[in-house]
Design goal:
alpha/beta, 2 domains
Length: 211
C-alpha cells in the first residue's frame, strides 16, 4: 500500500483478492480463477469504478502483462504483443495479458487480436476490461467469456461497501464518521466504488453537512 498517496482511491486500491468488495456470487466465481492463476480468456465489462481492472491485475500478479488500451490501441501494439506472447515467461508459468479498456482498440487491432488470442492461448491467459463492450466486434467478443460487473444493490453488498468506507475513514483519522453520511455516499455513487471513496474523501476533508 502506498501510504504517502494522497488520493484515497489509489492509496486503498486492493492489493489482494480478499480486500475486494464484490457481490458474493461474483467473488466466489472469481476466487477459483485467482486460485488457478488464470484460465480461459475473459472479458470483464460494466460501469467504471467497479473493480474490473483491479481484479484482472490480481489474478496472477507475478506473471501479468498490463496494456492500457486508451494509450496503446493500434495494430502495431498487437504485433508487439504477439512477439511477447510467443515467448515463455521466465518461470514457465502461463502469462496473464490484461488489455485494459479494450473498447478503445482500433478496428484493425481488434481484427488482428482475434488470431493472436487463439494461437497463443496455451501459454497466455487474455483478459479484457471494457466499460462499453458494444464498441468491440462480435468476432472479438466470441473469443472471450463475458463476465458482467453489473452490481445489484442488495443489502448484503451495500453493507460490505459501508464497512469498507468506514475502514478507510478510520485509517485516515475519521473514526466517528456518521452512518447516515456513509449511506448517502453509497446511494449517490453506486455502483462506482472508486467514486464512493473519492466522494467520501472530499466531503470529510471539507466538513460535510449531514442530512
Amino acid at each position: 500500500m502506498k501510504m504517502n498517496e494522497l488520493d484515497w482511491a489509489q492509496k486503498y486500491r486492493p492489493t489482494k483478492f480478499d480486500d475486494l468488495v464484490l457481490p458474493p456470487a461474483l467473488a466466489t466465481r472469481l476466487r477459483k480463477l485467482v486460485s488457478d492463476k488464470g484460465g480461459m480468456s475473459l472479458m470483464f465489462y460494466g460501469k467504471p469504478g467497479c473493480g474490473k481492472t483491479t481484479v484482472a491485475k490480481l489474478i496472477n500478479p507475478d506473471e501479468t502483462l498490463f496494456i492500457n488500451c486508451t494509450m496503446k490501441n493500434s495494430i502495431e501494439m498487437v504485433r508487439n504483443l504477439e512477439r511477447t506472447c510467443s515467448a515463455l515467461t521466465f518461470s514457465g508459468a502461463r502469462r496473464v495479458v490484461v488489455l485494459d479498456e479494450a473498447d478503445y482498440l482500433s478496428k484493425d487491432a481488434q481484427a488482428a487480436l482475434r488470431g493472436l488470442v487463439e494461437e497463443y492461448s496455451s501459454n497466455n491467459c487474455f483478459i479484457m476490461t471494457a466499460n462499453e463492450p458494444q464498441r468491440l466486434s462480435v468476432a472479438v467478443k466470441s473469443r472471450f467469456h463475458l463476465v458482467a460487473f453489473d452490481f445489484m444493490a442488495s443489502s448484503e453488498f451495500k453493507q460490505a461497501l459501508l464497512d469498507r468506507l468506514r475502514v478507510i475513514a478510520t485509517r485516515e483519522d475519521y473514526p466517528e464518521v456518521e452512518e447516515a453520511f456513509l449511506k448517502s455516499v453509497v446511494r449517490q455513487c453506486f455502483p462506482d466504488i472508486r467514486s464512493m471513496i473519492k466522494t467520501m474523501q472530499y466531503e470529510l476533508m471539507n466538513e460535510p453537512i449531514l442530512d
